[in-house]
Design a protein that fits this description.
The protein has five helices and four strands; from the N terminus they run E-H-H-H-H-E-E-H-E. The chain is of the alpha+beta class. The chain has one domain: 434 Repressor (Amino-terminal Domain) (Orthogonal Bundle), CATH 1.10.260.40. It has a two-stranded antiparallel ribbon with strand order 1-3. InterPro entries: Cro/C1-type_HTH, Lambda_DNA-bd_dom_sf. This is Helix-turn-helix domain-containing protein. Pfam families: HTH_3. Residues 32-86 form the HTH cro/C1-type domain.
Length: 124
């Protein structure tokens, strides 16, 4: 980045980004639930493998709970799923951003993808 220039995303950009992150988390949970149901395992069987109550699994599946990463890993392990995390830097639209000390060119504020981070949950 050029010295003295700091990219400041607008509140609309941050709101959209937050919505995308929520959608990604919901998609992950929905896919895990699909794997449980397609495997024929009951919520109670998953709970026993996880070492929790059936009520916790029911809350997880009804989206009435906000699970920790540990709970997501344990659920994935119980349903036989591998989960792959991908972390990238958000590339905000060039035409709708503001900056301190003037506008940025694309090369000034966009950074390359950080890379894949993968972890087999069976090893957790």
């Amino acid at each position: 980045m050029n010295a003295g220039r700091v990219f400041i995303p607008t509140s609309e950009m941050l709101e959209r980004h937050a919505e995308d992150l929520i959608d990604a988390q919901s998609d992950l949970r929905e896919r895990l639930i699909e794997l449980r149901t397609s495997s024929g395992k009951t919520q109670q069987e998953v709970a026993e493998i996880m070492g929790v109550t059936g009520a916790l699994v029911a809350d997880f599946e009804s989206f009435s709970a906000n699970p920790t990463m540990t709970t997501l890993r344990r659920y994935a392990l119980a349903v036989g799923a591998d989960v792959h995390y991908k972390v990238t830097r958000r590339s905000y639209s060039q035409t709708s951003h503001t900056a301190i000390n003037g506008r940025f060119k694309s090369a000034d504020w966009r950074e390359p993808q950080i890379d894949w981070a993968r972890r087999d949950l069976a090893d957790a």
